[in-house]
Amino acid sequence: MALQSHADSDVLSSDTKKDEIDLIQALILFWNYRSVIIAGTMFVSIIGLVYAFLATPIYHSNAVVAPKESQKSNSASAVLSQLGGFGGSVASQLGLGNTNMDRIGIILQGRDLAQKVIEENRLMPILYADKWDTVKGKWNTEDTSSIPKLWQGIEKLRTIILKISIDDKKNVITIGADHKNPIMAKQIVDFYLTALNARLREDIVQESRRNQIYLTSQLHNAADPIIKDKIRDLVASEIEKSMLVSTQSIDIIEKTFVPNIKSRPKRKMILMTSFFLGLFFSIIGIIGYKFYENIRHQISRK
């Protein structure tokens, strides 16, 4: 057992010394090729530096909003919960089980709202400013195939410029926009707020009218005076909801602003990333080169 323990100790000592030798050899290798490492790191860093200073600055503006009718929907749900099974059937007809936040998120990210924002505010020349002649007020090409199409503008607006963040816990939605012009970044968010408010207001008023018609029919069919009173409360709630959103269907918790600090490019991060990438690829390149040299040397010896 003592001999076995001594043998194991010799093996561990040998492995440790081997690792130390490999590390020293690697350090010597990198030191011998330090000029290559420095040159490679500087080259990639300079590329990153050029990009960081030449890239078009992008500004970000946003607003935080919340659905306005959620409290009334909650009060209506509370009334329906008192009606048992009948209340559940009414709730399904009134659509009170739908999630407002998800619905608003779908509308915001949809093509219909993006098209409305573009058409009502004539954003196509702004989205494709490099192809628009501001002096002549027309596209700077006669080739119709080169003129940006509406569907292209819709996709650019909703997938590149528009930024949507939904916080279900806080029941708020952040609507943001990225643009090289800080004023335009704010205006695009304002355009979306206006279009969203109009769309939600129209939908809520129409839904409320349908609910009132349905509840009125249920009121005539109900025989229980308690149920009738509860249905009257629901009708009043629907009327109050439609009045509540007659001008504003969303609460603007944080208003839009004109950003004075660009959101990207983040120059410090780009410089740090390019430095470490240059260092990494320089070292990998040296290791690969030495590995290739060793293989070629072994082949030549055979």
Give a quick set of tags describing it:
two-stranded antiparallel ribbon; elongated; 68% helix; alpha+beta; disordered N terminus; 302 residues
Structure overview:
A hairpin with a 4-residue loop joins strand 4 and strand 5. The protein has two domains: 2-55 and 265-301, no CATH class; 59-254, 2-Layer Sandwich (Bacterial polysaccharide co-polymerase-like), CATH 3.30.1890. The protein has helices at residues 2-32, 34-54, 70-81, 85-94, 100-109, 111-121, 124-127, 150-161, 182-221, 225-244, 267-301, and strands at residues 59-67, 132-133, 138-139, 162-167, 172-179, 250-254. The longest helix has 40 residues, at 182-221. The chain has a four-stranded antiparallel sheet. It is of the alpha+beta class and 302 residues long. Helix 6 crosses helix 9. The chain contains eleven helices and six strands. Helices cover 68% and strands 11% of the residues. The two termini are 44 Å apart.
